[in-house]
Design a protein that fits this description.
Distance between the termini: 32 Å
Largest sheet: 7 strands, antiparallel
Order of helices and strands: EEEEEEEEEEEEEE
Oligomer: single chain
Shape: globular
Strand content: 25-35%
Radius of gyration: 17 Å
Number of helices: 0
Structural class: mainly beta
Helix content: under 10%
Length: about 260
Amino acid sequence: MIASRGRPGHRAVLMILIVCLVTAHGCARTPSDVETGTRLIVQLRFAGPVNDNYHYYVLIRNGADPVGENGPIAVIEPPYGNGFATGRNTATAGFTDFVEYGRGQAQPVASGYGVYHVPGGISGDPNRGVFAARGEPDSSQPALGGTLLRFELGLDRLAPSTGAGEPDPNNGQPPRFLQVNVVATTTRPSNPVVIDPSKVVDAFGDRASLGSGYVTLDTAQAGRIYQSNQTPGDPFYEPEGDPYPSDRDPGIDLVAWSIQIAQR
């Protein structure tokens, strides 16, 4: 689904440690110190090859919200705000963290994947476009000209910043309820108020449903896999050929996704 027309008011596995020489495109990355705990295993499949010059975001809202009163949605028209995503409303942050894939990021990342946090967390303002870099995911797989993106992220990576006065919606416990969406876009417009004709966007759901396409995960359900399907009307429906405003770029067209709640 693609949503906002601007700033709203509106997955047993034996762990194998792989040592590899990281090139410009990288190799499958596994952390040297494997931690225990819950992680998200995210896989995204696109209709065409992933383009390293584009921007691919997995947006996460850590707000202890079991029903999804707010969550991340794609920005598709001016005012663009941060150029890629906002929230369903402005009562709280539409997202608090995200993983980005692409070679045009603010932080240099060998794997191509970067982890970012919104200053202020659930009380912050992601629309400002100011984000704190938090390194790379715990494990990741480069696109290498293929159509798949895959990474693993520990829930501990979503913790509020210490010493910054950020509220902790989970009261010191690991995050349980998370709102998640994926936004793939060709550009992040430099001018927030002028239409960028080269901007193509896709996100969870279909183009016809202009609303909140994010999903709510319950991380207490260890082993559960949330995944897309091809059934119109289903909450996890993910069709092919639905980027906005057109399907002219298959590298943006998200056709299948899965998020597994895994225990290490």
